[in-house]
Amino acid sequence: MFYVDEARDGRRRSGSDSQPLWSAVLCVCCALFVTASTGHSAVAQAPGGSAAVAKLSIDATQVVSPVSPTLYGLMTEEINHSYDGGLYAEMIQNRSFHSTWEGEPPWDLVRRGDALASRSLDRSTGPSRALPYSLKLSVSAASARNEAGLTNPGYWGYGLQPQTTYAGSLYAQVESADIGPLMIRLVNDRTGAVQAQARVELKAGAWARYEYKLTTGAIAASKANHLELTVAHPGTVWLQLVSLMQPTFNNRPNGNRSDLMNRMAAMHPQFLRLPGGNYLEGTRLADWYDWKKTIGPLVDRPGHQGPWFYWSTDGLGLLEFLEWCEDLKIEPVLAVYAGYALNGSHVATGKDLEPYVQAALDEVEYITGDTSTRWGAERARNGHPAPFPLRYIEVGNEDYLDRSGSYTARYAQFAEALHQRYPQYKLIATDGNSEYATKVNPDISDEHYYKSPADMMDLVHHYDSVSRTGPKIFVGEWATRSGSPTPNFGDALGDAAWMTSMERNSDLIIMASYAPLLVNVSPGAMQWPTDLIGFDAGTTYASPSYWAQCLFAAHLGDGTVRSAIAGENKRFFYSATVSSGERLLHLKLVNASNVDQPLSVELTGINGAHKAKMTSLHGATFQATNSINDPEAIHPIESTVPVPGSTWTHTVPAFTIEVLDIPLR
Ligand code: AHR
Fold first, then answer.
1. Interacting residues of 265 by C-beta distance below 8 A, sequence separation 6+
2. Which residues are CB-contacts of 344 (< 8 A; sequence separation ≥ 6)?
3. Residue to probe by mutation, ligand 1, list 74, 81, 278, most atoms within 8 Å of CB
4. How are beta strands 304-305 and 572-579 bridged, if at all?
5. DSSP structural state of residue 462
6. Closest ligand 1 atom, CA of 279?
7. Which of 105, 194, 403, 594 fits 45 for a cystine, CB–CB 3.0-4.6 Å?
8. Which atom of ligand 1 is nearest to the CA of 77?
9. For strand 559-566 and strand 572-579, is the pairing parallel, antiparallel, or unpaired?
10. Across-strand partners of 109?
11. What is the mean pLDDT of residues 542-568?
12. What percentage of residues in the chain have a pLDDT greater than 70?
């Protein structure tokens, strides 16, 4: 990320990773962000009028460069409650009572009438080595009429649907069964009406796992609900891993929210870059993504401190990342931890780095090894005997930020070991970023761009002149940023302009993924403004940039064809690719100016008159946008456009993105 570098420098100089400093970093980010976002005023005037006619010539018979079949993919990480409180189907916030969860555990007491109860974190007992602590609920007075217990707000509510079953489980220990059954209820915040309830009979003695189901009836869909766990008799109960899962995509156990998975599927992605981002690195060396602690039974996963200020349960761990790929029929692009932390510290090469290199080798074996290997067998024990596909391994994240220069040697140590054991995989380095040429000569260099609309549009010819003899490029993070929490139409125009450039240069840029992808828009859930897809506990919405990406990825050929344009306004961009099998020209036209852009088109390679399918996306202003309360303000509109032959005229309205599929037969 370019414009937070100074903030990161500040963090490194201070040598601290404290929360206040992080807050300062964010403030600097925001200040820089505001500066960047004002930069597009020259192209953001109200629309009106028309530019001069531009001449667009396309020879659809002449493919000049290939388009990578893996160009468009996904990148997410645990940020903005993307996983816990987002994609991961868990509904209970802080299910493992971690004391640093967002600063405060959101579990409160319920005491009806004259019931008396208290709660505390008990560090002396828990159900496993990974979770050696628990929440102790002590009830000194309670009755059937006046129950006592706990309440949990969920992740800013519980999004409940009618006639739906939610699968629960919990670990509990009780001194005596006299405390009676645990009653678990989903309750409407406004009316107090019970939406679903279950009864769990507790057995006295050691820690035990219990399952329960909550099934709604003919309720109105709503997120304004909370959870209550209560008892009707005095006694003490210790609780841990109190879980309630909503139905998942493909009914995958411990899986993902269907609505968000469907949003991702509609983007036609080819890969998932995992697990981050800063999430791979952690703020301190101790916070690295130690993948071995994210696999196996949930009770054996301790969780870890993420870099975006909250604890990660790691319920969505390495295997779940891979199953997510499997569910979307896409390939994983694995980033392995390379010994660098966001506070600027790094692991010394040689002996100190060896355990991390070994962890990376083991991780690749866990993903790809057959069941005769140690880690392939572990994957099978975890429920997935079949290996996963893998072609690309990324070493680290944004290591161009490591100004100590240690990456060159760290990369070399990883590359030697990975090449030796897995010569078939391509390695991606993270020290290159347009201004900083990579020093390590990888197969692929990961470059990141976070820009204002104007700056993104100014960048669209950058890769036209980049050498083709160096590494291939993975634009592993990119976004036009001015809208918050999700991109506005000006951002969508910047993104579309940038995508025309990536398609034209896709002989070099073999993969690209927008970041961040997801944001929980509930108050206080977001850490990073401008994220592609917004959601809350109940619903999701698509930003204008999301629609632009869906359109670009769904209408992409396998080759870029010869073309030229003259006389266009300086905020007009296009891409022309052909699908050779279908003999279809995909013409993308982006008019980011406030005047209509008439085109006189000369198209070689079309036989006779055709009707082209056109999908267009239009916003009245740069600021026009979608939101959780107005999710459809900007959406794609389909139509047909006559293409009478090899010469025709067409006008692209101001502030409009169009995608035309033109048959060439
Ligand atoms: O996408 C948000 C952050 O931006 C990523 O975690 C990091 O890689 C980049 O700096």
1. 328
2. 8, 11, 12, 15, 402, 403, 404
3. 278
4. unpaired
5. G
6. 6
7. 594
8. 6
9. antiparallel
10. 150
11. 98
12. 93
Give residues (CB < 6 A) around ligand 1. 1, 77, 276-278, 397-398, 477, 515-516, 528
How far is it, in rounded angstroms, from Cα 284 to Cα 594?
Answer: 47
CB-side neighbour CA atoms (13 Å) of 281: 26
3-state secondary structure of 76: coil
Lowest mean pLDDT: which of 27-36, 135-144, 408-417, 588-597? 27-36
CA distance 189 to 299: 30
Residue 478: band (very low, low, confident or very high) from pLDDT cuts 50, 70, 90: very high
Calculate the average pLDDT of the chain: 92
Measured from the Cα of 1, ligand 1's closest atom is 10
Query: How much of the chain exceeds pLDDT 90, in percent?
Result: 90
Ligand 1 atom nearest to CA at 276: 6
Residue 40: strand, helix, or coil: helix
Task: List the domains of the chain with CATH numbers.
Answer: 1-75+443-510+533-665 (2.60.40.1180), 108-245 (2.60.120.260)
DSSP string, 523-563: TT--SSS--SEEE-SS-EEE-HHHHHHHHHHHS--SEEEEE
Q: Whose CA is nearest to atom 9 of ligand 1?
A: 1
Is residue 177 within 8 A of residue 158, CB to CB? The reply is no
Q: 78-136, pLDDT tens digit by residue?
A: 999 999 999 999 999 999 999 887 766 799 999 999 999 999 999 999 999 999 999 99
Closest residue to atom 4 of ligand 1, CA basis = 1
Predicted pLDDT of residue 539: 98
Whose C-alpha lies nearest to ligand 1, atom 5? 277
Please tell me the total number of residues recorded for the chain in this structure. 665
Three-state secondary structure call for residue 641: strand
Whether the pTM exceeds 0.90: the reply is yes
Nearest-CA residue for atom 10 of ligand 1? 1
Cα(536) to centroid of ligand 1, in Å?
Answer: 22
Pick the atom of ligand 1 nearest to 401's CA.
Answer: 10
- Written as six digits, the tokens of 573 are 């961009």
